[in-house]
Amino acid sequence: MKRILARHSPLLILAGLCVALAVWSPEFRQTNNLQQVALRTCVVGIMAIGQILVILTAGIDLSVGSVAALSAVVAGLLMTKAELPIIVAVLAGCGTGLACGALNGLLITKGRIPPFIVTLGMMLAARGAALLVADAKPVYGLPASFLYLGGGKKIGDVGGWWIPVVIVLVLMAVFAVTLAFTRFGRSLFATGGNLAGARLSGIAVDSVRTRAYMLCGLLAAFGGIMEAARLSSANPSGYEGYELEAIAACVIGGASLMGGEGGAVGVIAGALIMKVLVNICNLKDISVHWQGVLVGTLIVALVYYDHLRKRRAGLLRE
Is the pLDDT of residue 89 over 70? Predict the structure, then answer.
């Protein structure tokens, strides 16, 4: 029972938090407000799913926000300037993110450069590239049919908010199954749990880590394109801080920054916990600065709990 509760603690925390806030604030439980919370969680949730793949290997990706901006700008320009079909532009944007992730992975695995340095460099390079490509201006005039992807349009009389929510749920289910039942998923856990042991057991750890960064870049790109569809513009200066939100969602969702622990369901729960806290702060007119204090304190507390648990179990060396 303790193992079950520990494994699903993010979901239990989310459920308890939502019940408490619904009782405390009538505005919180209104349908429109809950829809907005779900919609605003989607982009961070998609990026967090990609981030958890990297964190499982004991790595980190600081470039997801900048990669999202670059990919969104590329897709937006192809739709507006080159007038390419929407599907082609979206695939090109996703390919941009995939290429950035592949470069990250190769530099880390073949170049033996620490992930923090590589992804920090990619964060700066991708942001600069986005500003250069877009001439430091947001890309407007995106096709109306493209806006459905981000929930920015309605289908008939039904709000389109559910489209990105369904996409996130499908991605969550796909990667939850992948992590639990596939060879690649087990290899991610093994690589993050004990890199040397995984290599000696026959796992191609360099390939596993590279694929993790590639998927992280791909999902960051898709999340950025979805956000552009929601806002009806692709902003090369946007998405700042999204990498930190994605990492925070992973930590709150039960992932260990030491690698080898976490899951797709947990990170979505972690993203929802963050957005629910921000939402209630907005409803109660609490300063945005206090929102940062609240989320930051929660992250530190959960990391401390994770280290304390591992230390008691003898899994953490001083």
Answer: yes
Residue 242, judged by CB atoms within 10 A of its CB (0-12, 13-18, 19+), counts as: buried
Consecutive H or E run containing 298? helix 288-312
**Tell me, what's the pLDDT at 313?**
60
Q: What whole-number distance in Å separates Cα of residue 262 and Cα of residue 142?
A: 37
Domains and CATH numbers, the chain: 33-312 (1.10.3470)
Distance in angstroms (rounded) separating the CA atoms of residues 279 and 285: 10
State residue 157's pLDDT score: 42
Q: Give dist(CA 173, CA 57) in Å, integer.
A: 20
Q: Are 119 and 55 in contact (CB under 8 A)?
A: no
CB count within 10 Å of CB 299 equals: 18
pLDDT number for residue 102: 97
User: d(Cα 276, Cα 11) in Å, to the nearest integer?
Assistant: 13
Nearest to 220 by CA among 104, 314, 93, 316: 93
CA distances to 109, 183, 184, 197 from 203, rounded to whole Å, are 14, 10, 10, 9
pLDDT at 281 over 90: no
Residue 11 has pLDDT above 60, yes or no: yes
Number of neighbours of residue 288 by Cβ within 10 angstroms: 9
Contact indicator for 48, 266 with CB cutoff of 8 Å: no
The first and second tokens of residue 230, run together, are 């929601």
CA angle 209, 215, 218 (to 5 degrees): 145
pTM over 0.70: yes
Q: What residues contact residue 293 under an 8 Å CB cut-off, 6+ apart?
A: none
User: Where does residue 76 rank: exposed (0-12), middle (13-18), buried (19+ CB within 10 A)?
Assistant: buried
